[in-house]
Design brief:
Rossmann fold; alpha/beta; elongated; 13% strand
Length: 284
């Protein structure tokens, strides 16, 4: 009668194609340190005459093996021999990833089937294993290392005809006369008008050319000054002008600071004030 532990190993080897193929597979079976000698002896006797080249190791020796046997094994079976549990920790999965050749299979027995399978699958994906799946054998998870080495490169050959089409699409012939647009055609008549300085001043609060209620940036005073300047000053009537100081008629040089005729030309009492014809004209 077959040993039940050897029978489980044989079924896993058949399920994942480790016992067949033109090239003999190299397999590492990792067991707990306390596994009985009977289980190991039965497995060693079976694989001595059947299937791939199988090696056995205790979980405590995996780090030492990983230092010298990088990318050596086509498959690693962890905890599938015997009933004792081999830890499914991240450090161990990292060591297994270094032992497996490209496309190698890691077959792991979980601690509690149906409860930790999802957690173990996530841990395998975290360490770069692909095609992670639950085995037909209860409590077994399998994942594969990528079929390429990290950092490898491969030459990409482009279709020469496609390359010519791309070059032709960006090529300009000498006969081509691309249509251009004059920048002057993009301007409207209003764009050429010089803006009035007063319209460029905006309130710091409203961002508009209108002072806010409690304006403190000076815009309110500026707008008021502009409004006063725009209001035409009335020409004072000098027909009944009387000067208490007797100097108002003589001009600004003889007028006091509060004189109502300040800024007006000299005149005679009863004479209408006349401004020079060029006084309101620009100097330029």
């Amino acid at each position: 009668m077959d040993d039940p532990h050897v029978d489980r190993l044989r079924r896993l080897f058949d399920e994942y194609g480790l016992a067949a193929g033109p090239v003999r597979k190299t397999v590492l079976i990792v067991t707990d340190d306390s596994s009985t000698g009977l289980e190991l002896d039965a497995a060693k006797r079976y694989f001595a005459d059947n299937g791939p080249a199988v090696e056995f190791a205790f979980v405590a020796d995996v780090d030492k093996i990983a230092e010298t046997a990088k990318r050596t094994y086509n498959a690693v079976l962890s905890g599938v021999l015997g009933d004792r549990h081999v830890p499914c920790d991240l450090h161990l999965f990292s060591a297994y990833a270094g032992l497996l050749a490209c496309g190698g299979a890691l077959i792991v027995k979980t601690e509690n089937p149906g409860v930790t399978e999802a957690k173990t699958s996530k841990q395998l994906r975290t360490h770069g294993f692909v095609d992670v799946a639950v085995s037909a054998t209860p409590g077994i998870i399998v994942g594969y290392t990528p079929s390429y080495e990290v950092g490898t490169s491969n030459r990409v050959t482009l279709n020469s005809k496609a390359k010519e089409n791309v070059v032709a699409a960006w090529k300009l012939d000498d006969d081509d006369d691309p249509e251009t647009i004059s920048e002057d055609d993009l301007l409207e008549a209003d764009d050429l008008k010089k803006p009035v300085q007063s319209t460029l001043r905006v309130c710091a609060t409203t961002k508009k050319a209108k002072a806010c209620k409690n304006c403190s940036c000076g815009l309110a005073e500026e707008l008021e000054a502009n409004r006063v300047e725009d209001v035409p000053k009335p020409v004072p009537d000098t027909s009944n002008a009387k000067s208490s100081c007797g100097s108002c008629y003589l001009g600004d040089a003889f007028r006091c600071a509060s004189c109502p005729y300040l800024g007006m030309p000299a005149f005679k009492p009863g004479e209408k004030v006349q401004l020079a014809g060029n006084l309101l004209q620009d100097d330029f």
